[in-house]
Amino acid sequence: MNKNKNIALITGAGSGIGAATAIVLAKHDYHTIITGKSLSSLDKTEKTIVDNGGSCTLIKLDMNDFTGIDKLGLEIFKRWKKLDILISNAAILGTLGPIHHQSNDEFIDVLNVNLVSNHRLIRSFEPLLKNSDKPKACFLSSTVANEVRPFWGGLCCF
To answer: For residue 147, what is the domain's CATH number?
Structure first.
């Protein structure tokens, strides 16, 4: 692969918005690095990208794995020395229901994936983005922060 090719990292790219974003970026000649908790769902995204003539790298990564996020930053640096686009899409909802029905551990998982992992992404990938000629970072969120929905308490914190 050409070392000068544009590189994009998309978290939560196994399905939905993340997969669609990775597919579109690959069609625009970005090498996409796609992450997700399930390799089988990432395989589907990869197949679509490759079938359309694009290229991608799959990384099984749970956004609760903060050390894994840091290691990914180091590996991207070793291989490409830069990152042109960072799309933070991975998120979890937790149990739908009254917030007091969520266990402390589940609520901490929601906070870690939806909030703390974004801090780790910024910390790990800012230097790589600064190595790009036209860096872009996008952190996707939910309308729930502005349009409250009953029983979505864990996600409303963001």
So the answer is: 3.40.50.720
**What is the spatial distance between Cα 38 and Cα 59, in angstroms, rounded to a whole number?**
9
Q: Is 136 helix (H, G, I), strand (E, B) or coil?
A: strand
Q: Strand, coil or helix: what is 36?
A: strand
The full length of the chain comes to 158
CA 83 remoteness from chain centre: 13
Q: Domain span at residue 21?
A: 6-157
Give pLDDT tens digits for 96-154: 888 888 899 998 999 999 999 999 999 999 999 999 999 999 999 877 767 777 777 66
Residue with tokens 């590189």: 7
Quote the tokens at residue 148. Answer: 């409250």
Domain count, the chain: 1
**Cut 0.85: pTM above it:** yes
